[in-house]
Structure formats: structure tokens, C-alpha cells
Amino acid sequence: MCPEGLIKPDELPKNWGLLYVTSRGGVKPIVGAASEIYYGPQRDKLKAMQFEVDTVREQYLLTKLLSRVADPEDTNKLIKKARSETSDALKIASLRKDDVKALADEISEIQTENEEYRQKLGLPKSKRATAAIRRLRADRC
């Protein structure tokens, strides 16, 4: 995967695919199984591109990578904690969104009332008119 035009299809090693990231952020398959839209040809390309399996080397690489992580269980705990915190934050954000909507509705109602008071009193829209409306509302409550 690279920006559009950075790597040419003929520069690729055998059995490699190529995806371009377009200027608008989309992904465009150029070479490989992803460039096929039908399942049959896509399956055939995937089979042709399949690398030879070397289980011993793959396990060695995996072991080396895991040794750099330190304790995988600690990492798993951190990931679970981060996911939980993200979930909690999303719930809070959802509640706040409802609160904001309720406040926006309340503001709209108050603005409508203010406009009605202005019209009843024949006041122009100004700071003085707003202050007068506030006084009237305070007297009403």
C-alpha cells in the first residue's frame, strides 16, 4: 500500500500485490487478488500468490516479537482496560449529546418566548429589549 504512483506494478517482487491510496483517501487495488471483483479469478490469484509455508521461521519471528512486548498478559490487560474506558467514554458522550439536545430545545423555546414578548411590547430587538423581557420573566416567576 502506497500513495498513488509511488511504486509501479512492474517494480513489485513476484507474488506481491499493490494497493494505491488515492489523493481523496480511498484505496484502489492495482495488482493482486484485491484487483479482481469476481470470486473465481480472485481465488485463483490468491492460490497463485500463496507463499511457501515455513512454520519454524514463522514461530521464531512470532516468539521474537512477543519477547519484545514483555508480558503479553499485561498487554492484554492494558488493551481490555483501554477498550473499557473507550466504551465508558462513548456512553458518557451519548448522554451528554442528549443533554445538549435538551438544552438546545430549551434555548429555542426561550428565544420564541422572547420574540413573543418583544412583539407584545412593541420592542425592537436590542439589549434594552432583552433586559426588559428578563425583568418581565423574573416578575412572572
Question: Main traits of this protein?
Answer:
141 residues; mainly alpha; 3-stranded mixed beta sheet; 4 helices; 8% strand
Structure description:
The chain has 141 residues and is mostly helical. It has a domain at 1-54. Helix content is 64%, strand content 8%. It contains four helices and three strands. The protein is elongated, with a radius of gyration of 32 Å. 1% of the residues are buried. The model has no long low-confidence stretch (mean pLDDT 84).
Shape: elongated
Number of helices, counting only DSSP H or I runs of 4 residues or more: 4
Order of helices and strands: EEEHHHH
Q: What's the mean pLDDT score?
A: 84
Question: In angstroms, what is the radius of gyration?
Answer: 32 Å
Instruction: List unreliable stretches of 5+ residues.
Output: none
Structural class determined from secondary elements? mainly alpha
DSSP strand tally: 3
Could you give the distance between the termini? 66 Å
Portion of residues in helices?
Answer: 55-70%
Largest sheet report: 3 strands, mixed
